[in-house]
Design goal:
The chain has 635 residues and is of the alpha/beta class. The protein folds into three domains: 162 residues, Substrate Binding Domain Of Dnak, Chain:A, Domain 2 (Up-down Bundle); 150 residues, Rossmann fold (3-Layer(aba) Sandwich), CATH 3.40.50.2030; 223 residues, 3-Layer(aba) Sandwich (Rossmann fold), CATH 3.40.50.2030. The chain has 26 helices and 16 strands. The strands form four sheets. The chain has a six-stranded parallel β-sheet. Strands 13-12-11-14-15-16 form a six-stranded parallel β-sheet, sandwiched between helices. α4 packs across α24 and α11 packs across α16. The longest helix is centred in the first third of the chain and has 35 residues. It is globular. The relative contact order is 0.13. The model has no long low-confidence stretch (mean pLDDT 96). Bound molecules: FE(4)-NI(1)-S(5) CLUSTER with Oxygen and iron/sulfur cluster.
Length: 635
């Protein structure tokens, strides 16, 4: 079957074509095979929550208007929405829990290969958590912090700490008044599941309020913990040069692709690949060395901290294997397509899963364990080296596309970069916005989806935003996508940015599109927004800031959770395709209009990327007007 990717990424299109010639289906064929997709599913009007059902609502004709229990379109779609959000929040938060647990093990000396890499951050976050740090050894502080963080997951009463220490007062007040300030991370997810059981919560607005509470537990809870602990264990990123796209996979190297999300594994694989003995062994086998490349967000984690090349984003996972030069693809959790197992039948690549929570039929399983982290990583690297000679020459098809980029911008680094290390401040950024050099800031995050342009929309939107002097910050697969088109370079400012943004980028030497990390690092966007509010002059709360966000090509439930915590925090969020609730006019109205009266944020669903960019620009303009900021300098 001949299918189109709709992206302009040359590497993707070449390897897609190669796969087709080899009669190997990729996500694009499988997507076509599903068309037309089920209308009830798309509209959110299908319910399988009990064995009276499955039930479905007829949105247009004379068919049923309620399920067997009497649940109508509003209740069914809102329940589905809450379940999706709970799954997304759970995924991020469970990742955060793993990091906090690793911090605990490190503090107890029970790990191999890990250490506290960012002491300054350890002390800062420990203080924030109320850990007394005077005269205490570092490992004791780390232990107390890890325990307090782990308690955030299991808290039964009270409030999530970061929801009190970080956001502006107004957001805290809104959450308290509407009873959506999360208590414990796990508690909100469990409650989401309980509320969506038949016969519990039957008020769609109440269900959506809990949707926001569950999402807030992700953004200001699980994800924020994940980011902070990752920085503590593996150091806070600083701008670093690197390369992205499938061309980073080199024929003359032993290639290991790390795929998934939790850097506990990928960091150790990188560490192991530096081992002299293993490098020599690779050379003995005829390779020039060992090349690690990432896919998905674990790629972003090791990119922003170590400058490790990114092979690609989610949609490129199968294509990486199609180069025929991947000796090992080692995976942990999230966004790893079960389809990979089919590739194992064709290519020499060894697929290794490592996590008890994420097993794959057809993959080799090597359980990862922090107490032997480095040893296990070395074992995996060795398997890759041994597999180098098993390449099937006739299937080798590397591509040349690799693009330079700079990644590794953080909330902290923006302070230094703009204000100088000794006068850390957001003042220059706020001034640039106030004076009309920069219109505002937009967050472009999330996935790539064959339903839209397989990632290309991120480039279109980012280009349009920077042209209108909007500084863009990115995470996840959106960031990898824009990297491929060169937007993550300082030179991109001269090519694409408006005059005002260009001036700022030139003065500071930054790209117009800043890569902030993985999807859990969307928490960095929250904290950067808080820093902008704290600096003053461009809004006294998050909902007043001239900022907007999009996860235009979202596919994942995690993206729904991300979008909701931004909306609940007062921001406008654009999705290219709506989440599956369109069968309920009331739910759609609540998400796209009424919620704004509660949180100041709202959803927009817009399938045209240029229109999506202009919705964000208009929103930023509206906020500028409300703040009575100066007109844009060059308009
Ligand atoms: O967590 S952007 S496709 S890889 S879900 Fe997955 Fe989406 Fe990529 Fe990262 Ni995020
Ligand atoms: Fe049908 Fe209600 Fe059961 Fe859902 S909960 S399957 S709508 S009877």
């Amino acid at each position: 079957m001949v299918t189109e990717t709709k992206t302009k990424d040359v590497a993707t299109n070449i390897l897609k074509q190669i796969s087709e010639e080899r009669m190997i289906d990729t996500i694009w064929e499988r997507y076509l095979q599903q068309l037309p997709q089920c209308g009830f599913g798309l509209l959110g009007l299908c319910c399988k929550n009990c064995n009276f059902g499955p039930c479905r609502i007829d949105p247009f004709g004379e068919g049923a208007k309620t399920g067997i229990c009497g649940a109508d379109a509003d209740v069914i779609s809102a329940r589905n929405l809450l379940r999706h959000t709970a799954a997304g929040s759970a995924c991020h938060s469970d990742h955060g829990r793993e990091l906090a647990h690793t911090l605990l093990l490190v503090s107890e000396g029970k790990t191999e290969g890990y250490k506290i890499a960012d002491k300054e951050k350890l002390y800062r976050v420990a203080k924030e958590f109320g850990v007394q740090i005077d005269n205490k050894p570092e490992n004791v502080i780390a232990k107390e912090l890890a325990i307090k963080m782990l308690e955030e997951f299991g808290k039964q009463e009270g409030e999530l700490l970061f929801c009190r220490t970080r956001p502006p007062e107004k957001q805290q007040k809104i959450w308290t008044e509407n009873k959506i300030l999360p208590r414990g991370i796990d508690r909100e997810v469990v409650e989401a599941m309980a509320r969506t059981h038949m016969g519990v919560d039957n008020d769609y607005k109440n269900l959506i309020l809990h949707t926001m509470k569950t999402a807030l537990a992700d953004g200001w809870g699980g994800s924020m913990i994940a980011t902070e602990v990752t920085d503590i264990l593996f150091r806070t990123p600083r701008p670093v040069r690197a390369k992205a796209n499938l061309g980073v996979l080199k024929e003359d190297y032993v290639n290991i692709v790390v795929h998934g999300h939790v850097p506990i594994l990928s960091e150790m694989i990188v560490e192991a690949s530096l081992d002299k003995e293993l490098v020599n062994l690779a050379k003995q086998k005829g390779a020039k060395g060992i090349n690690i490349a990432g896919i998905c967000c674990t790629a972003n984690e090791i990119l922003v901290r170590r400058g490790i090349p990114v092979a690609g984003n989610m949609l490129q996972q199968e294509l990486a294997v199609a180069t025929g030069v991947v000796e090992v693809m080692v995976v942990d959790l999230q966004c790893i397509m079960p389809a990979l197992k089919e590739l194992a039948k064709c290519y020499h690549t060894k697929f290794i899963s490592t996590h008890p929570k994420g097993k794959f039929e057809g993959f080799e399983y090597i359980e990862f364990d922090e107490s032997r982290g480095l040893s296990i990583a070395k074992e995996i690297v060795k398997i890759a080296i041994e597999n180098f000679s098993n390449r099937k020459k006739e299937l080798v098809k590397t591509v040349s596309e690799e693009q330079s980029l700079i990644a590794g911008f953080t909330t902290e680094y923006v302070y230094e970069m703009l204000g100088g290390k000794y006068r850390a401040t957001y003042r220059p950024l706020n001034d640039a916005i106030r004076d009309g050099r920069i219109r505002g800031v937009a967050g472009l995050v999330g996935c790539n989806n064959p339903k839209l342009l397989s990632g290309y929309s991120h480039f279109i939107i980012a280009k349009e935003l920077i042209k209108h002097d909007v500084l863009v910050v990115e995470t996840g697969c959106a960031a990898i996508e824009c990297a491929k088109y060169g937007l993550l370079t300082p030179e991109a400012a001269f090519q694409y940015a408006g005059k005002g943004l260009q001036e700022v980028c030139k003065a500071v030497g930054i790209p117009p599109v800043l890569h902030l990390g993985s999807c859990v690092d969307n928490s960095r966007i929250l904290t950067a927004c808080c820093a902008m509010v704290a600096e003053g002059g461009i809004g006294n709360s998050l909902d007043e800031l001239p900022v907007a966000g999009a996860a235009f090509e979202w596919y994942s439930e995690k993206a729904i959770a991300i979008g909701w915590y931004f909306v609940a925090s007062g921001l406008l969020v654009v999705f290219g395709t709506p989440f599956h609730v369109s069968g309920s006019k009331n739910v759609i109205k609540f998400c796209t209009e009424e919620v704004e009266k509660i949180t100041g944020g709202k959803w927009v669903f817009e399938p045209d990327p240029i229109k999506a960019a202009h919705i964000m620009i208009e929103h930023i303009n509206k906020k500028r007007q409300l703040l009575k900021l100066k007109p844009m300098m060059y308009e």
